[in-house]
């Protein structure tokens, strides 16, 4: 799993800041955490684009467009299970959480497909 700390935002973060983080880190996703580090949602550049097309502005909070029910996996699932889970659901990124829902990392499909 790659370092995910640079793509962490809060529900109040503006669309513009979130888009900058997504672009800068090139992970195609940002994760929304509550003040305790629990996963609240995810957001992609596509979510932001759809929000802008609906009339939101770049200063709108990401809570307006985030996915509040993201798919996630336990942090220590076997590598093969995580890969199959992501392929079956056609997701390229999947938050890894502990038993309390606190974000511990990010599974990336590209990491599973890269030569070891």
Please render the helix and strand layout as text.
Elements: E1 8-9, H1 15-25, E2 30-33, E3 39-43, H2 45-53, E4 73-74, H3 79-89, E5 93-97, E6 103-108, H4 109-113
Parallel strand pairs: 1-2, 4-5
Antiparallel strand pairs: 2-3, 5-6
Structure explained in plain terms:
This protein is of the alpha/beta class and 116 residues long. It has four helices and six strands, in the order βαββαβαββα. Strand 4, helix 3 (79-89) and strand 5 (93-97) form a beta-alpha-beta unit. The model has no long low-confidence stretch (mean pLDDT 93).
Mean pLDDT, as a whole number?
93
Q: Helical proportion?
A: 25-40%
Low-confidence stretches: none
With helices defined by DSSP (H or I, 4 residues minimum), what is the helix count?
A: 4
Question: How does the helix and strand content classify structurally?
Answer: alpha/beta
The backbone outline, from C-alpha atoms, is globular
Euclidean distance between termini CA atoms = 13 Å
Main sheet: strand order: 1-2-3
Q: Determine the oligomeric state from the structure.
A: single chain
Question: Strand-residue fraction?
Answer: 15-25%
String of helices and strands: EHEEHEHEEH
Radius of gyration, rounded? 14 Å
According to DSSP, the number of beta strands is 6
Largest sheet: 3 strands, mixed
In short:
This protein is an alpha/beta fold and 116 residues long. The protein has helices at residues 15-25, 45-53, 79-89, 109-113; strands at residues 8-9, 30-33, 39-43, 73-74, 93-97, 103-108.
């Amino acid at each position: 799993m790659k370092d995910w700390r640079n793509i962490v935002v809060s529900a109040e973060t503006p669309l513009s800041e979130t888009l900058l983080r997504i672009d800068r880190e090139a992970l195609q996703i940002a994760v929304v955490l509550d003040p305790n580090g629990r996963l609240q949602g995810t957001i992609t550049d596509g979510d932001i684009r759809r929000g802008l097309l609906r009339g939101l502005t770049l200063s709108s909070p990401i809570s307006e467009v985030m996915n509040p029910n993201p798919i996630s996996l336990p942090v220590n699932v076997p590598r093969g299970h995580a890969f199959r889970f992501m392929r079956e659901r056609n997701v390229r990124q999947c938050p890894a959480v502990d038993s309390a829902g606190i974000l511990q990392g990010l599974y990336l499909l590209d990491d599973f497909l890269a030569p070891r």
